[in-house]
Amino acid sequence: MGANFLIDGQCGGCRFHTYPYEAQIPILIDGKYETRHLTSNDDVWLVIDLLIKETEQTNTEGRSFNIAESVMAQLPFFACKNIMLDKESQQDIARFMYSKQFNISPYSGSYGEQPKKWVEKSFLLNNLIERQKAKAMKHG
Ligand SMILES: [Zn+2]
Fold this sequence. Notes:
Number of strands: 2
Bound molecules: zinc ion
Number of helices: 4
Shape: globular
Radius of gyration: 16 Å
Number of domains: 2
Mean pLDDT: 78
Distance between the termini: 21 Å
Structural class: mainly alpha
């Protein structure tokens, strides 16, 4: 199974299509929105990580935003949506689906020993998958 069902089609070209680029990231840091020089998918995942943390923080203050929805809503402001479709992400998604299906840990070791980037990604993917399921149920 690919990630295609997570995203409505591939991007045919946008201002964040090729690295490097500058983008104002949608997170308030010290009272302002900083412009970042982004050079790779890793840089984008760092911003996604910040967004996840910010949304979690907001939720501890009594709100209940869906984290994946928040991230996906902000993504077009600083990244090409193809980041979710790149080869590495596809492999992670395949691994994620497999480990979920067979209820095994994708990497050896306890949850705390999983690679940090993987933990973030699978967390986001899980949210996206649940969101897609909910959508599919709604539309019959
Ligand atoms: Zn693009």
